[in-house]
Amino acid sequence: MNNPRDESGPPDHVGAALGAAAGDISRRASASRSIARIVEPYALTRRVLEERRLIHPEESVRKQADSFREIRTRLLALGGDHNFITMVAPISPRSGGSFVARNLAAAFAFDEAKTALLIDCNLRNPSQHKALGVDAPDGGLIDYLEHPALGVERILHHTGVPRLRLIPSGRQREMGGEYFSSFRMRAMLDSLRSRYPDRYIFLDGPAVKGSPDARILAELADFVVLVTGSGRDTPSLIRKHVADFDQHKLAGVVINQLP
Questions:
Q1: pLDDT class for 9, splitting at 50, 70, 90?
Q2: What is the average per-residue pLDDT within 33-42?
Q3: Is 93 within a domain?
Q4: What's the pTM value of the predicted model, to 2 decimals?
Q5: Is 1 part of any domain?
Q6: Which residues does residue 91 pair with via DSSP β-bridges, in sequence order?
């Protein structure tokens, strides 16, 4: 005779699910403790943040900060319980894509249980190191991709914004497609995301118009945010380039009012 099944505990599949959930909670709690232990070597003052056109949690830039909080909320709703990689790219050059990428990363860093990593992938016109006042003696992304002996920790920089780190572009390059499609680039992003489950990564991408680089870079991202300068792009041009991307990844189009 077969032994009767013990019905006092949960079914096997439920127990497995509970175990997985407990493990996930434990990992997140550990990551939150690690974030709490992060030592910031310096912090930018409110005046310097505003001079650099960076949002902060205080009242003087509440309207601008709330705009980026809304985008953050949208992305978190799409991403669910997992951290993710977001590419931010302007439709046309000089539309403020780097400004949006920088401040969206800062909005994620407002949350004391999260960290944000901004990677300058605008290889032709890099700007994030200047905007954030970062000196990068060992270069940045391109130097890492071109020199296997260079460790990623050498190109990760504090920004003066708590919980926000930057990987600058490094050397300028005309075409980024070959770098963005490389195994080393993909492996770097996988490692940076998996090491800390509460780290959110933002790729400051090149303009979509006139180059395939943004579309290639988007293959590495979970979500895509496009930026159009107010009055800069026609509705037909916006529709044309929106159609260039996987619609399951497209989180939306931001209309940037600032130059």
A1: very low
A2: 63
A3: yes
A4: 0.85
A5: no
A6: none
Q: Is residue 7 over pLDDT 80? A: no
CATH of the domain at 248: 3.40.50.300
- Which is nearest to 167 in space by CA: 182, 185, 148, 149? 185
Q: Which domain holds residue 22?
A: 12-256
- Work out how many domains the chain is built from and give that number: 1
Is position 144 within any domain?
Answer: yes
Alpha carbons 208 and 226: distance in angstroms, whole number:
9
Q: Is residue 233 part of a domain?
A: yes
**pLDDT of residue 6 exceeding 70:** no
**Cβ-Cβ contacts under 8 Å for 254 (sequence gap 6 or more):** 71, 100, 225, 226, 227, 228
pLDDT tens for each residue of 186-245: 999 999 999 999 999 999 999 999 899 999 999 999 999 999 998 889 999 999 999 999
| Of 97, 100, 99, 111, the residue nearest 57 (C-alpha) | 111
